[in-house]
Amino acid sequence: MHPPLTLHRHPMCVEIIEEFQKCHTDHPIAKFFGQCTELKIKLDRCFREEKALKRKANFERSKILKERIQAHRKEMTEKSAE
């Protein structure tokens, strides 16, 4: 199962999504018998790569946020100690 195939949400996979949707419209019955399987595999790989990039970016943002929070906490404990 894949996420909804909206082009604006998956900028890395636009070409593969369009090919996959075209395959489904061109082969309405054969799609059930593996006509579009190779495109589906490419699409899944693209989604995995996209998700890995998003995960890495989120992790980097979370590290920055943790550092800011720790600095703020340290600053607040220093102020309260005075």
Automatic annotation (TrEMBL):
The record's Pfam families line, in alphabetical order, gives:
Cmc1
Organism's domain of life? Eukaryota
Q: Which UniProt keywords apply?
A: Disulfide bond, Mitochondrion
| Cellular component terms per the entry's GO annotation | mitochondrion
List locations, semicolon-separated: Mitochondrion
Q: Which family does it belong to?
A: Belongs to the CMC family.
Q: What is this protein called?
A: COX assembly mitochondrial protein
* Species per Swiss-Prot/TrEMBL record: Phoenix dactylifera
